[in-house]
Each structure stands twice: as C-alpha cells, then as structure tokens.
Amino acid sequence: MDARSIAQRIVADASRDSAEAALPLTRRRKLSGLRSQSNCFGGVGWRRSIAVFLIGVGFCFPAFADIAPVIYSQDFDLPIPKPDISDPCVSKGWMEDAIIQVPHHFTIYDLNVGISLTHTSAFDLQIFLKGPTNEKICLNRYDFNEFFKGENYKGTVFDDEAEVPIEEGKPPFAGRFRPESGNLLESFDDQDAYGTWRLQIYDARYSDTGMFNHLELIFNAPEPASALLMTFGATSLTLLRRRGHERR
Ligand SMILES: [Ca+2]
Ligand SMILES: [Ca+2]
C-alpha cells in the first residue's frame, strides 16, 4: 500500500471518529463498545486534530504541484508509418513502437507523457501508450468524424491534471493537454513502473507521412516534505490510539 492509500485510510478513520463523536452519548457508547468517550475526543482531541491536519496537508499539496519527477526520455527517428519494402510509398499503417525500458521498481503516483513528432497531417494519427502490463490507452484526439487541419505534435505533454482537453487543442498541440475521458493516465496509477513502455502510433489515412522524434515518461512523486508530514501525522495518530488503549 502506498503513502496515498495509507493517508486515505487514516483520514477515513478520523472522519468515522468525528461522525461518531457527533452522535448522542448513549448511541456513541453503544457503537464504540469498549471505546470510551474521553479517549476519542477528550484530552487528546486537539492532538488528534493536529495529526489529521498534518496528514491532510501532506496528502493534498502534491495534487497541485508536480514535484521531484523521475523522467525517462529518449530521442527517436522512426518513420510514420514504418517503411514497407513492398511499398516504397507507404503512407498508412503502424509506426514501429517507440520503446523505453524503465529499469527501476517503484509505485506510480502520477504519470505524464511527453512526445514530439512531425507529420503533414496530425489528424491522421492515433497515439497509444502501452504499459508493462500491456494496459493500453489512446492519448490523443482521434475522432475521425471531426476533421482538423494542421501539422505535428510539438512538445506535447499529456497530463490528467491539464486544464485543456486534447479535443480542444490544435496542431502542433504545444503544451499540456488532458487525454480524453476514459483514456486517462491514472489507469497506470498504483502500478509498478518497472518494465517496457511502448508509444504506438497508427497512421489511419493515405498521402501524409511523418517522423517520430521524442518520448518522455514523467513519473511524479509526492513531495518529500508532504510524505514527511503524512508520516508524522500517521505516527502521532498511532501513538494517541495506543495511549488510549493503555488507559482503558
Ligand atoms: Ca499528471
Ligand atoms: Ca498517412
């Protein structure tokens, strides 16, 4: 279980305690059994509140900032689509996979994906990310009923937390865009990052072609200070609970 899950469980426990504390005394005693009222929100109540506050601050802050990312990036020179010996003018089909190997084991907290490519018609492309467990999502705008003109993806970062959805972007899609709903990168959260990641592109129309240039996998981690706050808060809560048990 990662730090975020631990924090969620602790905050949920605290919320339960708060809800019980709001009940009439007789009802509260029935609910808690051996648990005494003074232990829950008597002398240690304010300390418990501070501990929960620290966990909350540590848990919420990383949602608003990408801090200390671990980045795996690689340059490529892959034709879109891949060359076909039997058809020198091939202009429709799959690109050879752009592959990045992540050599370390760690739990994914938040993943962003950056790409750069040239193509004379960005409308033709479906862009997929396939993770080590073979889970696959389509990142880009791909509704072939909504034609748009323009070239390239230049410095495009797919990020679930981006304000602009990719379907509202325009070539060359420079900046941060949110993948379409149902294809969010959170699909990979809580998984092990270790293994083979594949960026796959299907060029769905004839005539136009291009070249894939760059791929980045950006793994964001909770800020160390936030992790420290969550750990300190969780430890405090544990000590308070242990102390409560000893008093019974
Ligand atoms: Ca993100
Ligand atoms: Ca094409």
Features:
single chain; 248 residues; 10 strands; 5-stranded antiparallel beta sheet; 5-stranded mixed beta sheet; Jelly Rolls; binds calcium ion; 2 domains; elongated; alpha+beta
What does this entry look like structurally?
The protein is built from five helices and ten strands, in the order H-H-H-H-E-E-E-E-E-E-E-E-E-E-H. It has 248 residues and is α+β, with helices and mostly antiparallel strands. The chain folds into two domains: 3-63 and 224-247, no CATH class; 69-220, Sandwich (Jelly Rolls), CATH 2.60.120.260. The strands form two sheets. A five-stranded mixed β-sheet has the order 1-10-4-7-8, with no helix packed on it. A hairpin with a 5-residue loop joins strand 5 and strand 6. The longest helix is centred in the C-terminal third of the chain and has 24 residues, at 224-247. The two termini are 31 Å apart. Residues 17-42 have low confidence and may be disordered. Bound molecules: calcium ion (2 copies). Residues 91-92, 124, 203, 205-209 line the site of one calcium ion. One calcium ion binds next to strand 4.
